[in-house]
Amino acid sequence: MNLNDPKIAFGAIALCLIIIRYGFELWLDHLNKNHVRKHAESVPEPFKEIMDEQTYQKSVNYTLAKARHGTILDSYSTALLIIILFSGIIAETFTYITDFIGGSEFAIATAIWLIIWILQALSLPFSWYSQFQIEEKFGFNNSTQKTWWSDQAKGLVLSFIIGVPLLWLVLWTQKAGGEFWWIWVWAIVVAFQLIMSVITPILILPIFNKFTPLPDGELKNRLNKLAERTGFINAGIQVMDGSRRSNHSNAFFTGLGKGRKIALFDTLINQLHEEELEAVLAHEIGHYKLKHVPKMIIWSFGLTLAGLYLLDLIAQQSGFVEAFGFPSEGYGFGPAFILFMLLSSNITFWLTPISSFWSRKFEYQADKFAANVVGSNLPMVTALRKLNEKNLSNLTPHPLYSGFHYDHPTLIERESALQS
After folding, report:
1. How far is CA 70 from the centre of its chain?
2. Contact indicator for 92, 109 with CB cutoff of 8 Å
3. How does pLDDT run across 366-413, given as a tens digit for each residue?
4. 172-179 long-range CB contacts below 8 Å, 24 or more apart?
5. Mind giving me the DSSP string for 229-298?
6. CA separation, residue 405 to residues 28, 149, 206, 339 (Å)
7. Is 365 helix (H, G, I), strand (E, B) or coil?
8. How far is residue 95 from each of residues 2, 88, 333, 343, measured CA to CA in Å?
9. What is the rounded CA–CA span in Å between residue 252 and residue 241?
10. What is the helix (H) or strand (E) element at residue 212, kind and residue range?
11. Which of 276, 353, 394, 417 would staple 63 via disulfide (CB 3.0–4.6 Å)?
12. What is the number of other CB atoms lying within 10 angstroms of the CB of residue 56?
């Protein structure tokens, strides 16, 4: 093997990145599954007040079932990526599509979108199995086949309507932007994400879910008083019909500025008492008041800028696209862009612990904020216990696995922090 040949060098580097990432992930999964099995015989002492034996065993089985499915999916996805890259299939597919629809920036953007969609479609059976086998088995699935396939179709149409014009704009800007095109593209990506944060709750989320105002009553009064007490300006509290698809629960904010709305899953409302819902909302407000969201957005934008700069450096090397079967000329920036998209996750994977660390730190701070605002840590503790029980959360993850992947602390970690 002549590593002095740029084509061979780029291919070897890419293959090493993929295999090392996959091997490490496989090892992490193995550690975690063994750690869960080690504590599977009976409910660990700290959790005996939270779960009975039957529920705990169900949570263990649910964790292991998802882990097995995740390992199979990752193995399949990794093998698929290696095959399409090194067999030349992706280059041949790209060439076939562009020969058919043309070589303009818009046509190349469409070709990139089609290839991404094809790869996603090849993984659809795994998503279907997760929803209708694993989630169904453990009592979480409420979705029908019609709803699930309708969601896939809607997602496909939206991704084309939004994704192709954005890809076209990126390709056009790269061509017209000169030496520092990556800065201009970064500005476009930043603007796009900010715009999407505004229009998503207005135009996109209602396509998939029904949002209704929280009915008048004691709960609405309690939550509105909480918002007033914390100086949180919002355009209203809405209930989302999450139970239409799943029994999992959540709460989140949508929109920006005065258009910000509070969204509560109907499942969350059914699972928690009013004082616990108040604590959960106070936790979410804590993220806002402590400026956690802007900090994470800045981190994300920083990574995007660094990624685009790296892409600029790599795209200038003709050996990069040639290593995977593309000609060095004739298709402009398109081949380098799609290859970078496919390979970049094998690099950003190693940054996961950093973002997970900051996210967990922010969760601790938001928990403390909620406890201070409601005047007690008890509602937050009982809410966390219920949510972990209802969602069959993994109560005993391996510390290295949770440190790498968990963007929220474990239940025992959050309880200990709240009670300290």
Report:
1. 15
2. no
3. 999 999 999 999 999 999 999 999 999 999 999 999 999 999 999 999
4. 172/105, 174/333, 174/337, 175/105, 175/332, 175/333
5. HHT---S-EEEE-GGGTBS---EEEESSGGG-EEEEEHHHHHHS-HHHHHHHHHHHHHHHHTTHHHHHHH
6. 10, 29, 30, 25
7. helix
8. 28, 11, 14, 20
9. 13
10. strand 211-213
11. 394
12. 22
What CA–CA distance (Å, rounded) separates 315 from 323?
12
Burial class (CB in 10 A: 0-12, 13-18, 19+), 43: buried
Considering 105, 276, 284, 389, which one is annotated as catalytic?
Answer: 284
pLDDT score of 66 more than 80:
yes
What does the longest C-alpha to C-alpha distance in the chain come to? 74
Cβ–Cβ under 8 Å, residues 175 and 206: no
pLDDT at 262: 80
Select from 200, 202, 201, 173 the least CA-distant residue to 189. Answer: 173
- What are 242's two structure tokens? 């999450």
* Angstrom distance (rounded) from CA 27 to CA 20: 11
Identity at 406, one-letter amino acid code? Y
pLDDT of residue 256: 66
Which structure tokens are listed for 60?
């263990």
> Among residues 105, 363, 367, 389, which one is catalytic?
367
320-354 pLDDT, tens digit per residue, is 999 998 887 766 788 999 999 999 999 999 999 99
| Separation of alpha carbons 375 and 279, rounded Å | 10
74 belongs to the catalytic site? no
Name residue, tokens 């989320």. Answer: 205
Query: Please, which residues have CB within 8 angstroms of residue 386's CB and are 6 or more apart in sequence?
Result: 271, 272, 276
CB 67 within 8 A of CB 134: no
* DSSP assignment letter at 16: H
How far is Cα of residue 276 from the mean position of the Cα atoms in its chain?
Answer: 26
194 three-class SS: helix
Q: How many CB atoms lie within 10 A of CB 71?
A: 15
In the beta sheet, which residues pair with residue 238? 213, 263
How far, in Å, CA of 385 to CA of 55, rounded? 13
Q: Is 5 part of the annotated catalytic residue set? A: no
